[in-house]
Structure prediction request, 292 residues.
Amino acid sequence: MDKYAIVSENLVKIYRAAGIEVPALQGLDLRVERGEIMAIVGSSGSGKTTLLNMIGGLDLPSAGRLYVCGKDLLKLKAAELVEYKRNTVGFVWRNGARNLLPCLSAAENVAMPMRFARKMVNGKLRRAIGLLDLVELKSRAKSGLSRLSGGEQQRVAIAIALANDPEVLLADEPTGSVDAGTSAGILDMFRRINRELGTTVLIFTHDREIAGKVNRVVSIRDGKAASEKIAAKSELSDASFGGVRREEFFAVDKAGGVQIPPEYLEKLRIKHGKVRVTAEEGRLVISAPDRV
Ligand code: ADP
Ligand code: MG
Prediction:
C-alpha cells in the first residue's frame, strides 16, 4: 500500500437532497502513486469535484474504500480529519484568489495558514517567500494583492496550498478562469512543485488539453473511471490522433463492460447500438457493424 498515495476502491457517493438521490460516484476505482502528477478529466457533472471532496476529506463517501497516505478516510475521527485537512492535503480552487486577504501582501497571505508557533513570525515569512520563489513570484512577495494579475494571484493561492507542506495537492479546475497563456504557466507550476517538492499532484479539469502536461490522464464518466492515457515511453508523434503518442487503457467493469470515448466512436463512425468485435491473434478489433 505504501507505493500509493491514494487508493480508491468501488467508491460510491450518493447525494440526497429534497427526497431525490443523485449518484455522483458509482463505484470508482483509482490508484495514484506517491510522487505522481496526474489529471482527472471529465465533462461537467461527471463527478470530479465530488471525488476531490472525498479525497480531501471535505465530505464523506457513501460506500467503498478510500485510503490517502495510509489513512482510511471512512474511519477518521473528527479531530483526525481536521489534522488531515490541515497537513496532509492542500487545495487549489478555480478562483483561488477569492480566498486571499486583499489587505495583506503576497508573502503575508502565504504565511497565514502556517502551523508554526506565533513567535516564529520571521521564520514563517522566510518560508512564505521561499514558496513564492517556487511559483516564480519572489519579486512580488511584498506587493499588495490588488497589484497582482489574476494569474499571479492564482500562483499565490498555489503557494498557500503548499504552506503546510502537504503530501497531496488537489486542484479543482485551477485554470478555469484564466486565459490559455496563463493557464500553461499555472500547469508548469504544478509540474515544478511535483518535481522539486515530490508532492503528489491531482488536477481535476474538464479541459482535455491537459493531457500534454501530465504523464497520466484518467477520464471519468458518470462517476466511474472510464479510461486512462499514459504517455508512451517513446514519445513518437502519431498523425491519426495528433501530438504525443500515448498508450491508452480502458477500465473493464465487473460485468465486462468497457466505455469507448465518444470521440473514437465518431472517428470510426460507430453509432449507438452494436459494434463488430473480431478476435485476431491475441487482440480484439472493434469496428462499425457494416465494416470488416
Ligand atoms: P463535476 O465537478 O465533474 O462537474 P460534480 O462532482 O460537481 O461534477 O457533480 C457530480 C454530480 O453530482 C452532478 O450530477 C451534480 O449535479 C451532483 N451534485 C454535486 N454536488 C451535489 C450536492 N451537494 N447535492 C446534490 N447533488 C450534487
Ligand atoms: Mg467540478
Remarks:
- The two ends are 45 Å apart (CA to CA).
